[in-house]
Amino acid sequence: MQLRRDDVVDGALTILDDYGLADLTMRRLAGSLGVAPGALYWHVANKQALLGAVSDRILSRLDTVPATGTPDVLDAVRGRAHGLRDALLAHRDGAEVVASSLSARTVTHPVRDTVADDLLATGLTPEDAGHAADALLYYVLGATSDEQSRLQMESAGALAPDRHPGDDGGLDRDATARFDFGLELFVDGVRSRVRTLNE
C-alpha cells in the first residue's frame, strides 16, 4: 500500500495522543508506519511542517462549530473560543503543537481570519478585530496549554494540591469555569470597545 499524506498525519496524531509531543519524532513515526524515515519527506519537508499538518487537522474541528442561532454576535465569538479549546483538548499536547505551529507560520487553516471575521461582526474596526483575534487566540492557547499541563502532571501524581486561602473548589478547581471567566472578561472588553467606537 502506498503511503499517503493523510496516513502520515494520522500516524503522527496517534503518537501524539499515546506518548505526547516529546516522543513524536520522525524516526518513531516512520517505524510506526513501517517505512524508512526518508519516505516521510515525500509528504512533509521536516518535523515543523509535520506539526503544521497535525495542527491543521486539529483545527479542522472548528469547521463544524455550529451557528449559535442567537442574535448576539458575541455568542459566535464564545462558540469559536470553546470550539478551539475543545479541539486542542481532544489531543495530548494539542495546545502546544498548535501554538508552536502558529508561531512558525506552518498552519494553513484560517483560524485567525475566522476569529477576526467573528469579531468584525461585533462592530470592531478591521484593525481592532485583527488585534482582538490575536488576543483571543493567545488566551485560548495559553489557558488550554496550562490546563493540559495540569492534567498530565495530575495523572502522573506530580501536581501538588492547590493551596489558595479561602479556596472553595470554584474557579481554582474547575478549568471550564476558569476559562469562561477569562472569556467573559474578553467579551466585556470587546463590548466596551464597540461602545467607545460608536460614541
TrEMBL record:
The keyword Mitochondrion does not apply. Residues 25-44 bind DNA. InterPro entries: DNA-bd_HTH_TetR-type_CS, Homeodomain-like_sf, HTH-type_TetR-like_transc_reg, HTH_TetR, Repressor_TetR_C, Tet_transcr_reg_TetR, Tet_transcr_reg_TetR-rel_C_sf. Coiled coil: none annotated. This is AcrR family transcriptional regulator. Residues 161-171 have a biased composition (Basic and acidic residues). Residues 2-62 form the HTH tetR-type domain. Residues 152-171 are annotated as: Disordered. Keywords: DNA-binding, Repressor, Transcription, Transcription regulation. It comes from Rhodococcoides corynebacterioides.
